[in-house]
Amino acid sequence: METYAQALIYAIPGFMVLLLIEFVYGYAKKDQKIKSLDTISSLSSGVTNIIKDVLGLTFVILSYDWVVHHISLFEVKELTLSEMFTLENLWIVLIAFIAKDFAGYWSHYLNHKVNYFWNHHIVHHSSEEFNLACALRQSISEIFSLYTFFLLPAALLGVPSNVIAVIAPIHLFLQFWYHTQYIGKLGLLEWIIVTPSQHRVHHAINPEYMDKNFGQIFIIWDRMFGTFQEELDDQPPVYGVKRPVRTWNPILIGYQHLWLLMQDAWRTRSWWDKLRIWFMPTGWRPADVVERYPVFAVEDVYTLEKYEVKTTRAVHLWSWFQFLTTVAIMFHMFLSIGAIKDVFDLSGLIVFGLFLYLSIFALTALMDLKRYSLWVEMLKSALGFAVIGITGDWFLLGESNPFLLQAFMAYLVISPLMVAWLNYRDLPQSEIVGVPVAA
Question: In the 8-state DSSP scheme, what is residue 187?
Fold first, then answer.
């Protein structure tokens, strides 16, 4: 928990700098791939995911540590961080990295191919743009993790759990760079690693590209298992999902597919369909439900109208202010996580996380022009004042700097007032529009 939070303190600014570079490059080339509200939605999704991960809100069905101690064929001692990257032990790190990538391929494949698991992954594909911010669209809906089962090769070889723990965030962060449209094909590297060209194929909903290129670092797995597809010059990728999500709210996106599965399982008359719908291929629905409750799906990708909100500059500026403020508050959690946990236990951190989730929900609901954004904003402020009233502080913020606590309290007052004003003045001037995919 604390180690991951500390890593994010350094990683998040790095991601932000790269996003800014991509934005400036697009502006200079007059070929901008970044759109304001879509980008906030992507970044907000990343915030919800890392809060979940830092708080450890995923239950692992089978512990890797247990597996490596009970079924490994070789015994390898635990390594310190400095020992991991010596020449003597580099082979252990290399095996761990390859095993992690092999596991990532099959986990990724499963997420695309099985109805229930698609709910874990849909948010990553939900943007109808493709840029570095898309890489940060990660799910909050994976409550139970089966990932350890895919790491059995590493466990059999005795790779220590702490090596996997160090490799995992490195492996994840290395998947960031190839979410861009500005880098073309990379020659020989196209045969070895996942490149931007190959990952554009993966995010596309063109019939030629669907369910291809599942690799995370190495493209070799796709070439081995028949899931590789090259980007074609005459087939420009169209991004998104076949059943468009039509919202900027990452929390709603994270449970949208699961809600459809639950509704279909309830509505179908067949008991067999009620059971098998969860494990059928992604998109499968019982025949009697399809007939009575049709769901829109994209048929011709080139006539897709992308989700867009036409609104005022004030809504855009406020949305960015709210997002950056939420990130700043989250950084306080990460910087003080050990002390907060000592004083308030895990329950305190969960309350802190709930406040951040309410912030993201209210922010993205306003971006979707939802009037209830005000009620969520008021609930968020009420939670903030309740914690301050009960404890006399906001999770040690005032203890570190009394001025910051005063600023936070002022924010809790001003924020709902501003959202109320935007609801009254700006939302009536706003509308949800469809933008042609070629635009």
Answer: G
